[in-house]
TrEMBL record:
UniProt name for this protein: Uncharacterized protein
Organism lineage string: Eukaryota, Viridiplantae, Streptophyta, Embryophyta, Tracheophyta
Keywords: Membrane, Transmembrane, Transmembrane helix
Source organism superkingdom: Eukaryota
Transmembrane segments: 202-225
Amino acid sequence: MMLEEHNVTRSMRAGFCVYDSRGFDYDDRQGETLVELSEWTADGVKHNQMCRRSGDSPACVTNRSSSKFARRQVNCAMVVANMADIYKDLVNTGGGLKCLEATKQVFCYHGLKRGNQNPILILTHGDKLTATDRMNARTKICEVLGISETSGVYDIVCMTEHGVAAEECDPVTAYALTEAVYRALLISDMSHTPKLNHTGMAIYWITWLLNLIGSFFAFVARIFNGPNQKFDRMK
């Protein structure tokens, strides 16, 4: 129901925030998904911000968000899709793409892109499929979304073969999650201009001043060189 903020801090000045949102409905006939996404990308997000749906009861739409929570810009988006649901829809409908098209609508939304960088795609519940079905589903999803199967998409299992939560003991899942977060941080850094310290500012202004002085002397040399060229022609 609410956006939930998770802070990952290394110091008082270094860190990042991850926001977990409510899932979108595959049967989004009123375009609520894109409306909400446009609000997040344009206005930013903050902790306890309401995720509204048309079917919610009035008692559930009370906004608990407070001014004490900071509103933050969306620098990178991760789209999480249920691979098992998408593959089941493909099989049961004889190749129908309702779930996949809904995922594509969110993934390809222009507000989630940063330059030429697409959002990061996270596929879950693939452990419910056989190895062959899982590979076919991944190939079909990447084909429809127009992304590479080897980059930009991460297959995250939910439960191991022993019924244990994967993130607690599976090094492959832990590595995939770490790589996804690392790539998200790289994309986020692209939207920030580097902050100059005192040394950097001094070098910047000295360089600018030297360029200005060089341009001035080049202009003066050109002015005084003009009459000399005319005098040489007259000889």
